[in-house]
Amino acid sequence: MYRDxxxxxPDQHKLEKQxxxxxxxxxxxxxxxxxxxEAGKPExxxxxxxxxxIRNFLFIMLYRNRTFHSRFNKSKEEYDADDRESMLRYMxxxxxxxxxxxxxxxxxxxxxxxxxxxxxxxxxxxxxMSKSMALKTKLESQAYPMDAMxxxxxxxxxxxxxxxxxxxxxxxxxxxxxxxxxxxxxxxxYMDYHLFxxxxxxxxxxxxxxxLQKPSSPEHRSVLETxxxxxxxxxxxxxxxxxxxxxxxxxxxxIWSNGKKVLSPTKVSSDKHIFYxxxxxxxxxxxxxxxTVLLEEAIKTETLAYHSRVGLLRALEAYLxxxxxDFRAPFFGQLRSATAEARVEWQDxxxxxxxxxxxxAQSMGSQLPTRYT
Length: 373
Fold this sequence. Notes:
Helix content is 46%, strand content 14%. By secondary structure, the protein is of the alpha+beta class. Strand 8 and strand 9 form a beta hairpin.
């Protein structure tokens, strides 16, 4: 998918090699995380560079998914995304002949972004803010500005956490497209509340929007009000994981003073920043909410990996009985602009998918009746 078709470039697999290198580095980091978790340790320490590589990798995995392939793998004339006018104008300005070339250039820019240095914490100095804005300006000059802004926002307005089920019988399902799924409404551009990266059935990386950590803040209310315009209620604009019991990692360069974080008197250079990530134990309701999000987005996939039949059955039954008001409104948002034929086709596919999952659950002894709506 990422083959660089620029004939002037002798390396026809430049993007694949770049991504492969990033993937290998992140795999090494996650193997260390996994080993520490399985050794029963309460936390893992990561450098700023290591944290940055994980964040970069998660975003690119989302950005390279089937939806974006469908968006960009069209001719200029066929390009029909909501941003058609601005995309065609950008292609004209930059000399791109195919939307796919824009996608490739974006992925390359995101992979090469120096986020380990330029990402910053709000309590950092003005110099940190200056670096962040410099990164934003650089990204917008190298990538399509709308998508560059999304990438930059994802870096600046979210944090990583490592989660594990507290119940022995619970597990995270490993759906085929888990790394390409975000939780959040689809009626507003790039409003991802959570990204997911299963490491094992008992350990998952969850990237969480900062706005959800401050439920009483004006920023949180403003986001919900903006998103809710496409739904019947504020609940539909919210997150099914709004009360996820995680928090930002502590670090070695900020200290608490008068109820807020400030820079430590002992200066620590950014290359020596250390972040202390706890392994958060999640109650069953949160584990199954995550599994439900993953299953809802796995309709067009072909495989699903799991560790135990008990864990799979618990996840399937939680998904099949899900009836929270407005839960699926965010997922249906992407169909609002689709043709009537496309909506019917998707509903037909979904019915077959639900019936398949129901049969799998019944084969393991489930007596849960499924309601099709």
